Known about the structure:
By secondary structure, the chain is an alpha/beta fold. It has one domain (3-212): P-loop containing nucleotide triphosphate hydrolases (Rossmann fold, 3-Layer(aba) Sandwich), CATH 3.40.50. Helices cover 36% and strands 19% of the residues. The protein has seven helices and seven strands. Strands 1, 2, 3, 4, 5, 6 and 7 form a seven-stranded mixed beta sheet that branches. α2 (86-93) packs across α3 (110-126). The longest helix is centred in the last third of the chain and has 20 residues, at 176-195.
Amino acid sequence: MVQINLEHREITLKIVYYGPALSxxxxxxxxxxxxxxxxxxxxxxxxxxxxxxxxxxxxxxxxFKSRSGFTVKVKLFTVPGQVMHNSTRRIVLQGADGVAFIxxxxxxQTKNNNDSWRDLLENMKINGLDPERIPxxxxxxxxxxxxxxxxxxxxxxxxxxxxxxxxxSAIRGEGxxxxxxGLLRLSWRNLDNLYKLGEKLDLEEDEFINNLLHKGSGGEx
Length: 221
């Protein structure tokens, strides 16, 4: 969960990108990193296997200093999607303040999406994370491809579930910041409700969001 260090005036949130193999989790982080304001982003680390699938996790700290002098950090992680790496997914998921589930929009990936979703819920419970309380958003990625689930179908999915649904083409940088902003807003509201962060840090939701997601042009400020 959120880490608050009053002595060093620092607060750290953890966001985890979850989903089946090759759904676009790493591509999301790469796109976010490219669109971030240059001075407000950390180094993007990608640890891959020989077949270019993420083996462990990506870590990208995003940070800014609030008006009250607190350094606010958000660490973004992805989990490996392959079934064999379930224990690693469980470890990376520990202490998450919010989860972005990256689903593959292609029609032939529906079963993989569903299996990964069940895996997420199971690993959340094992880690002591209540799926009813930890903010989760769903992104349907790869909207630029053919043979994908229709917009109407995704709208129906959104209405059936309690999680916000976003549509994206991460490889084009479309929908990635919208997904992250939606999750960060939910995470902030949840933590503010639990710990009164806004009052303690003299920090409003919009200040939190706008400072984190100020867009650069091609990574420039």
